[in-house]
Amino acid sequence: MKKRNALKQSFIKFSTIKKLHKWLSLLVFIQLFIWLSTGLFFNLMDHEKARGNQNKKAITFQKVEHDRLVNLELIMSKSSKPVTEIALIQRLGKPYYLLTHEEGLYSHFKSDYSLVDAYAGEKLIIDDGVASKLAQASYKGKGGVSGIVKVKPPITDMLKERNIAWQVNFSDALNTSVYIDASSGRLIGHSNDDKRFVDLFFMLHFMDYPFLGQGSVGGFNNGQIIFFALLTFVFCLTGFIWVIELLRKGRYKFS
Amino acid sequence: MSLHRKSRKYHKWLMLFVGLQLLTWSVTGTYMVLMDIDYIHGDTLVAKNKQRLTPEQVGYSFSELMNDHNKASNVKLGLLLNQTVYRFNDGDQKVLLSALDGQQLSPINEQLATSIAKDNYINTKTTVINVQLITVNPPRELSSRHLPAWRIDFDDFASPSFYISANSGQLVTKRHSYWRIFDWMFAFHVMDYIDEEADNKLLLVFTVLAFIASIFGLVLTYFRLMPQQKKRNSKVDNDLNKEVVDEKA
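Structure tokens for the assembled complex are given below, as produced in the milestone run.
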């Protein structure tokens, strides 16, 4: 009996660690299992399907007839906004000048562009008709266009996108949606049911819930995950100390 | 053996093998969620100083460029410091031309690369401590598709480095100590220390074992913390402690 008391006393701190570990397990176990199972999913999933590009094809480019290109002064006179960059690009097999008025560090950051026909010098507005053609030019599936909607960020399929876009929906087995930037006509990307399924797992792994705090942002810097990460860190640390303690006391024995 | 005893045994043994990785996941995960991702990307280090283009600055037209370089694609007219320039792809190669006379400016020299880096850096007073041209074997933090590139190191908090493409004269990559730590954190999180891909076998084995170990842990949580189990717990505890005392004696 005496011996047991001595043992207990010398490990007072250790007993606190054990208690912490037990009670923390109750707080974090649900999230821990979500992290482990979604992690396992990311490990095993089909990384090709996860991209949502099953029905995407490369856009073809035509040769530019350089002697038909309208001159710069004319293009710039068409724009009331300041221009920081001009690119010679193609949309639907025709050359256009893409005028940058405002540009973020990355293409998904807030930007403002306008398009001018590089042969005729006329402005091109990306309306639903143009957006639909642009989407179809990037689509190799068998479905037809079933709907076109203008969407504002946050866009559920493209959470990081901060620009207004046209969502062109196709009636195929995967429910493909194609997103076109409303000011530049740039193809933002494709999404479909396979990608949406994977996005659900990212939402769970990152605790990026639409009904909490700032809503879904496609990232992992939110209050709830920081809270659970810190708790889980203490939980794992106390568990790890426990293992070390068991090793030290020679409790790992084959028998 | 009871489910309680069995769970205790398997939890103990499995955690001997996967406990360190669980701790690693929690440490690396905590680091990644605590660090603001835009800061990690170095976005806050970049100055926003876009100047506007005027037609007078252009003496060489798009049409002349397309005539002289008929394989040119992705042609852009923009600014490089105070100069108007064209940037385009000639096959795999990026090319930089003066928009005044169409003269080729790429590849750029050390002095110009340094000026571009300083112009893009948020703090104009920061001094450059090292400049290096990288043409082969890029460091871990630079993608090989950006080669050749100039690395410009600044004497500032968290040792920032800007990478300027030698052929386009553009800022292609920005790094600092917290990005470098983050990169290793991610590698340890997905257990792929070279390519940082999440679909490797090592991660699979550890995730499955950690999952099983955690299930046994959950069984223990039930037996340890459910009120009606308290009595039985003390019995298991006594038995175990008796074993220990017996062993020590």
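The first helix of chain A runs from residue 2 to 10. Chain A touches chain B through 63 residues (CB under 8 Å). Further analysis is deferred to the final report.
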